[in-house]
Amino acid sequence: MSFSPAVKRQLWSIVGFAVAVLALMAFLQSDYFELVLTQVLLWAVMSLAWNILCGYSGYFSFGHAAFWGLGAYTVALGLIHFDLSPWLTIPAGAVVGGLAGALIGFPTFRLRGHYFALAMLAYPLATLYVFQWLGYQEIPLPMKREAPILYMQFADPRAYVALALGLLVVTLLISLKVENSRFGISLFAIKQNEPAAEAAGIDTWRWKMLALMLSGALAAMAGGLYAVVLLVVTPEAVFGMLVSAQALILALFGGVGSLWGPVIGAAVLVPLAEGLNAKLGDVLPGIQGVVYGVAIIAIILLAPEGVYWRIRDRFAGRLPEAVPMPAGGGAIPAMPRQVRSRMAGEDLLVLRDLGISFGGLRALDGVDLSVPEGGLYGIIGPNGAGKTTLFNVINGFLSPERGSISFAGESLVGLRPNQVCRKGIGRTFQVVRAFPRMTVLENVTAGAFVGAADDAEARYMAAAALDRVGLGARANALAGGLTNRELRLMELARALAPQPRLVLLDETLAGLGHDDLDAILGAIRQVSAQGVTVLIIEHTMQAMVQLVDHFDVLDHGRLIASGTPETVVRNSQVIEAYLGKKWAEQVAVAAK
Amino acid sequence: MTHKLTRRSVAKGLAVSAVALALPAIGRAQAKSVKIAMIAPMSGPWARQGQLLRMGADLAVEDINARGGIKSLGGAKLNIIYADAGDSTEKAKNAAQRLVADNPDLVGGTGSWLSSFTLAVTEVTERAQIPWLTLSYSDAITNRGFKFVFQTSPTADWQAAQTVPTALDLAQSATGKRPTTVGLIMDNTAAPTSFAKPLREGGFEKAGLKLVVDQIYTPPLSDATPLIEKVRSAKPDFLLLLTSAMPDCKLVLEKLDEFKLSHGKIPLVGNGAPFGSPELLKTIGPELLEGMLFSVANWPMKGQEEFIERFKKKTGEPFLTQDALCGYGHPAILAEALEAGGAADKIKVAEAIRAMNLTTGPAAQCFPGPIKFDEKGRRVDVPMIFAQWQKGVPLTVFPTDLALATPVWPSV
Fold first, then answer.
1. Beta-carbon contacts of residue A372 (< 8 Å; ≥ 6 apart)
2. Do B20 and A279 touch (CB under 8 A)?
3. By residue range, what is the domain housing residue B222?
4. Residue B20 pLDDT more than 50?
5. If you measure CA to CA, which chain A residue comes closest to B191?
6. Together in a domain, B73 and B199
7. Mutation test of the interface with chain A: which of B48, B52, B98, choosing the one with the most A Cβ atoms within 10 A?
């Protein structure tokens, strides 16, 4: 197995971290410090588990205590009712946590943003009452005097440190793997722009569910080990608000969406809180909470994104990593699959009687359209004509109320955007939907997964697509720092990366200066020349007249004209739509 | 400018807390002293209870040392250290582990009020073989086969079984007649639910009672009218009131008053020390509380009059309660054990507690019944105490030999 230099560096960091913890464990002479160290490691696992869903995908959860608690109760109830050892019930807890993740995700992923976060709040609160009602108020884990080790009961507290460390290392490795695979890139893409991710062929639902299940499984394992360490399980202690808040605070403090952020958060805040309790709790009870709160506020003021990002920005900058470029330099043949073997000119996309309305507004009203394979077709129309709606219906963001959409003979109606993308339709957006904190190459790679068998191929295809649009030199720049032209080209490359048969370009030319316009027009022509069918919408006629070989004009949701650019611009209905009835009459008179 | 200021003040704040962290532990060991510990919630939602425990313990240590310390140890002074159990089981367990690690010379301890805290704390103290006294009354505490935990309160199950029969005895001794009907108003939280379960499952019948009103609500209670209407029409001989939130209790009492059923017209019986707390008096007032009875594990009794006065004067509390009384009693038991064991050694202290059978002396005075533990660490031969609100003070009224006042039970 070969790793990229960045992954190798992280692997060594994990090894170094584990050695440091083991050294600290050997150095600490007190059972008390070993206990606090164990708690630091367990909370780090919990916070990392939270981070897998919430840090990477941006779906914040205020309810991770649900998983922690289920893990803890799996261990406690397994031991008292069935005499099952935590060696079995902690992994079993992972299964319970994963299943709970699936059950919770199924209804809750219908929500987004704050609504998702608040809905998650409900689960631990509800389970708390369920466990109270079931009569599991206080479950002490029985002391096993015979064969204690078989029941994970050790006299030496260092054993718990080692167990917690093992769990943390596993969690770090899983996080690292997630970060560096299509799983992670898909989650990053979802975080930054979910519709764009979906349109780029990422099955957002599936990745979110997987992230929640993985997150739930890891949190449940941490909760299970926590029960073994604490030896008493109460609903308040494992399902309480404090647990969910702790996971979130540690990650926010240390740095959301990073591998080491949650670990930093746990390593600083858990001992700080405990130290304050120890030193101030009996002298000035309550003051420890105040100091803890002040420390958190101070950090948030000084490092709003968390300690990790602050340090990284300060000392390392954002060093772009060297990405291995596909061999053979820039000369990558653009080879859309199958396309060449087909007869050019056959209809690829056929819309029949397409209609959708929003309330009383008929956004699309009986649209008929055929785009032949290899064609470069344009749709124009004034603002509000229904152009973007048409694209949204084709690529699955919206479902048509009537009519049919067929692509290469298959119906697209009812498919989700990522499925439409899989069929071979890429799209760009009117307002560029980039993933600003990812590099250009990563942005495009996110789009390439659909057409690639593995992550390496996706990367290769992405690099190839960047070269096709002439953006190869900027592969390692962060998307957030691109110019408007580069953004447009990058989005084009993202749409092209999985080698689609058809690309939908939504006002790609809008707001561009003269030079930029020429560059993009050139890129589009080249794409078309390579055999990809192009359907582009614009509201300005000028650029389109130069570009396309066929025009359709959309107004108030209806196609009012169709033909070559020369005929369409003379059509009186088109002139009326653009310039008003009076102007159309004048043109008509002049023509006579 | 503002930004700079913020930074500076933040830095200052951090510096202050760093200094606080670096402060050495307070309370140096004295030349000749034995060390005991109390872990109680001193911050968070149960801080008040921890405070009361600590008031009692402070007084106890003061008294023991004023009497000349532990005589069998050459007059060694008793030294008590405190740790905050905070607001979670995790914090309570950490406090215990810290205490044990920092004080290898601990000979005994007490705490931690909330039974889940006590469960966590005793997991640590048991392994360290430190004799530990607690007033928490969850059965689980002494069901684990532990050897170093001693529960001075009768357990929850026992209290649930004893409250109703004892209430009937009390009524009979006060009026000569035994009640035959009972009403029950309770919320559906954990403690009332487990308290009422054995009663519903034959407990009432066995006591010769007919349950004529049976009302369960989900807290918070918004209006007590429908509950009290049921009580008014069924007229039970007495009403068992198992509320866990003070505002709910207040609503019920106000509604009873409105329906002219208060002031003992229908005797009220509750369970647990919260029914006798100064906070309840503050919230509800002496008028409405007048005549309300409650069963409780421990309450100030006959023979403690002088101590009660001293406690009130010293602390400014309106009256002595279970928490402060046990806070006083536990160090007293440890002192007796040190005295009997004759060594500042935790194992010897534990042995002395196991062998203990005290009926007189400062420790025995703090608890009803003898200080004698069975092999589980539970006290034996403990009577169920009843206290009653009389003129703004909850006074022990039953059993008669421990009573500070005569119970009032209206003739039915």
1. A344, A345, A346, A347, A348, A533
2. yes
3. 158-296+385-402
4. no
5. A137
6. no
7. B98
Contacts of A31 in chain B (CB under 8 A): 97, 100-101
SS3 A140: strand
Give residue B12's pLDDT band: very low, low, confident or very high (50, 70, 90).
Answer: low
Query: Distances from the Cα of B115 to the Cαs of A310, B142, B156, B345, in angstroms?
Result: 43, 11, 11, 27
Asked if A496 contacts A503 with a C-beta cutoff of 8 angstroms, the reply is: yes
Domain count for chain B, please give it.
Answer: 2
Is B271 in the same domain as B345? Answer: no
Nearest C-alpha of chain B: how many angstroms from A283?
9
B123·A132 Cβ contact <8 A: no
* Residues B220, B140 share a domain: no
pTM: 0.84
* B194: chain A residues, CB-CB within 8 Å: 135
> Which CATH number fits the domain that encloses residue B177?
3.40.50.2300
The widest CA-to-CA distance across chain A, in whole angstroms, is: 107
| Cα A537 to Cα A397: distance, rounded to the nearest angstrom | 17
In this structure, are B187 and B289 located in the same domain? yes
What is the pLDDT averaged over residues A110-130?
Answer: 91
pLDDT digits (tens, 9 = 90+) for B155-198: 988 998 999 999 999 999 888 889 999 999 998 877 788 888 88
Q: Considering the domain boundaries, does residue B18 fall inside one?
A: no
Q: Structural domains in chain A?
A: 5-243 (1.10.3470.10), 346-591 (3.40.50.300)
Query: How far apart are the CA of A41 and the nearest CA of chain B, in angstroms?
Result: 14
Q: Is B353 part of any domain?
A: yes
Tell if the CB–CB gap between A295 and B83 is shorter than 8 Å: no
Query: Is any Cβ of chain A less than 8 angstroms from the Cβ of B17?
Result: yes
Domain co-membership, B195 together with B282 = yes
Q: How far is B315 from chain A (nearest CA, A)?
A: 18
Q: How high is the pLDDT of residue A339?
A: 40
Q: What percent of chain A has pLDDT over 90?
A: 44
How is residue B76 annotated by DSSP?
Answer: B
* Inter-chain touch A288–B26, beta carbons under 8 Å: no
pLDDT band (50, 70, 90) for residue A344: low
Would an 8 Å CB–CB cutoff place A146 in contact with chain B? Answer: no
Q: Residue B9 domain-assigned? A: no
Could you say which of A33, A232, A294 has the minimum Cβ distance to residue B119? A232
Nearest beta carbon to residue B116 from set A32, A237, A242: A237
Nearest Cβ partner for B123 among A132, A138, A231: A231
Query: Which ipTM did the prediction report?
Result: 0.81
Distance from the Cα of residue B325 to its chain's centroid: 8
> Facing residues of A561 across strands?
A553
Out of B14, B20, B21, the one facing A298 most closely (by C-beta) is: B14
User: Could you tell me if B162 and B148 lie in one domain?
Assistant: no
- Give yes or no: residues B310 and B224 share one domain: no
SS3 content of chain B, % helix, strand, coil (to 5): 50, 20, 35
Written as one letter, the residue type at A268 is: V
- For residue B155, list chain A residues with Cβ-Cβ distance below 8 A: none
CA atoms within 13 A of residue A51's CA, in its CB half-sphere: 33
- Assess whether B180 and B254 both reside in one domain: yes
Chain B residues closer than 8 Å to A230 by CB: 89-90, 93, 120
Among chain B residues, the shortest Cα distance to A140 is held by B119
Q: Using N-to-C axis directions, what is the helix angle for A86-108 and A204-230, rounded to 10°?
A: 140
Residue B285 lies in a domain: yes
Best mutation target, A32, A156, A287, to test chain B (most B CBs within 10 A): A32
pLDDT in tens, A272-328: 888 888 887 777 777 777 878 887 888 778 888 888 888 887 776 544 444 444 433
Cβ partners under 8 Å of residue A185, min gap 6? A438, A442, A445, A446, A449
